[in-house]
Design a protein that fits this description.
DNA-directed DNA polymerase; single chain; DNA-binding; 28 strands; 9-stranded antiparallel β-sheet; elongated; DNA replication; Proliferating Cell Nuclear Antigen; DNA Polymerase III, Chain A, domain 2; cytoplasm; 3 domains
C-alpha cells in the first residue's frame, strides 16, 4: 500500500474512529486502527467489540484532491502511536507506505517514521446487518434525546441491562427510557417509518450513545438507523457506527409513573435549579447531597440544606401555582439538578403522590419528556 493524504482529512477521520478504541481489550489487534486504501478513497476502522466505527475519506471532494493512491492495500497500525504522530507531523501532505511484513513508513515534510504494522486479515470483520428494520431521525433530535436520557443510566456493572438506554418503537412513536433504580428519564418522539416495525427491548449502552452523540452533526441532517437482532448501525454521512445491543430484558418501569397526583405545582425552572445548586454546595460537604423542600400555604417553597461544619442555606421560591397537600420532601440535589438541566422549558410541572413516593417532573408545555427521582427518608 502506498498513498498520500491531506493531514486535516486524515486527522478528522482518526478523530471519529478513535472513539471505539479501548486499551482494555483482550484482543491485541483491536488496539490498532485498520486502514484500507482503494481507488475510491481510504477507510479507517476501529472496534472494541461493543462499538465499531468506520470512517471513509473520498479521494476527491469536488475539485479538491484529498488522496493520491499509488498502490491499494491494507494495514493495521497501533492506534495510540498513530493518532499522536499524525497530529504532530509538520506538513499538510502525509505519505503512508507499507512494505514487507507490514512495516509502515510515514513521511511528512522532513519527518520519516517507521511503524511495525499488523496483518489486516487478522482484524475481525464488521457485523453484517440486514436493512429490513430501519428508521430515520434528524441528527439534532437524536442528540437531544440521548442528552435527556443517557445521564440516568446505571454505572453499576452488576446489573448490565440498566447501564443502557431502552428503545421502544411502537407505530410511529420512539421512546427512550433510562433508569438506575434511583431516578428515571424518558423522552418520546413521533417518527416517520415507511413500514413501521414494532421493536421492544432494544437496549444500547449509555456510554456508547454518548460516544455516538459526539459524532452526530449539530445541523438537521437525517441519520439512518438499522436494527438487527443484536446490533444497531447508525449511518452518519461517511461514518458507520455499529453498536452491540445489550443482552437481557429491561425491567418494566411503567408502574413507577403515577397516573394522578396528591400534590402538584408549577415552578420557574431557572429559579429552582439555581436555588438547588446553591444548596448543593453545602450538602455535598457532608457527602449526602440531601436538600429539603418545604411547601408553604403562601404559594412558595423553601429550599434548604445544611452542613455540620459549614452551616445552613435557606431560600424561598415563588410558585406559579400549587394544589393539593403541602409536603416536606428530601431529595438528592445532584439527581434533581441533572434532571432540571435537560428540561428545556421556562416552567416545569412537578407532581407528588406522597412524601416518600417518586417525584415526577415534566415541562409545563410538553408531555413527551419526563424525569423521575426518588425522595430520601430523613429524620427531621
Amino acid at each position: 500500500m502506498k498513498l498520500t493524504i491531506l493531514k486535516d482529512h486524515l486527522i478528522e477521520s482518526i478523530g471519529h474512529v478513535s472513539k471505539a478504541i479501548s486499551s482494555r481489550t483482550t484482543i491485541p489487534i483491536l488496539t490498532g486502527i485498520k486502514i484500507d486504501a482503494t481507488v475510491s478513497g481510504v477507510t479507517l476502522t476501529a472496534s472494541d467489540t461493543d462499538i465499531s466505527i468506520q470512517s471513509f475519506t473520498p479521494s476527491e471532494n469536488g475539485t479538491l484532491k484529498i488522496i493520491d493512491l499509488f498502490q491499494a492495500g491494507s494495514v493495521v497500525l497501533p492506534a495510540k502511536f498513530f493518532v499522536e504522530i499524525i497530529r504532530k507531523l509538520p506538513s499538510q501532505n502525509i505519505e503512508i507506505e507499507v512494505g514487507h511484513h507490514f512495516q509502515t513508513t510515514i513521511r511528512s515534510g522532513s519527518s520519516e517514521i517507521q511503524i511495525m504494522g499488523l496483518d489486516p486479515d487478522e482484524y475481525p470483520l464488521l457485523p453484517e446487518i440486514e436493512e429490513s428494520k430501519m428508521l430515520r431521525i434528524p441528527s439534532d433530535l437524536l442528540k437531544t434525546m440521548i442528552k435527556q436520557t443517557s445521564y440516568a443510566v446505571s454505572t453499576n456493572e452488576s446489573t448490565p441491562i440498566l447501564t443502557g438506554v431502552l428503545w421502544n418503537i411502537s407505530g410511529d412513536k420512539l421512546k427512550f427510557i433510562a433508569c438506575d433504580r434511583h431516578r428515571l428519564a424518558s423522552r418520546e418522539i413521533t417518527i416517520e417509518i415507511e413500514s413501521a416495525p414494532n421493536l421492544q427491548n432494544i437496549v444500547i449502552s449509555g456510554r456508547t450513545l454518548n460516544e455516538l452523540s459526539k459524532i452526530l452533526p449539530d445541523q438537521n441532517s437525517l441519520i439512518d438507523i438499522v436494527i438487527s437482532d443484536n446490533q444497531v448501525l447508525f449511518k452518519i454521512h461517511s461514518i458507520l457506527f455499529y453498536s452491540r445491543i445489550l443482552d437481557g430484558t429491561y425491567p418494566d418501569t411503567s408502574k413507577l409513573i403515577p397516573q394522578s397526583y396528591q400534590t402538584e405545582m408549577v415552578v420557574p425552572t431557572k429559579e429552582l435549579a439555581e436555588a438547588i445548586d446553591r444548596a448543593y454546595l453545602l450538602s455535598r460537604e457532608d457527602k449526602t447531597n440531601i436538600v429539603k423542600m418545604i411547601m408553604r400555604e403562601d404559594q412558595t417553597i423553601e429550599i434548604s440544606s445544611s452542613s455540620s461544619e459549614l452551616g445552613k442555606v435557606t431560600e424561598q421560591i415563588n410558585l406559579q401555582r400549587i394544589t393539593g397537600e403541602l409536603l416536606r420532601i428530601s431529595f438528592n440535589s445532584k439527581y434533581m439538578l441533572d434532571a432540571l438541566k435537560v428540561l428545556d422549558s421556562e416552567l416545569i410541572h412537578i407532581g407528588f403522590t406522597g412524601a416518600m413516593q417518586p417525584i415526577i417532573m415534566k415541562p409545563e408545555d410538553s408531555t413527551n419528556i419526563l424525569q423521575l427521582i426518588l425522595p430520601y427518608r430523613t429524620t427531621n
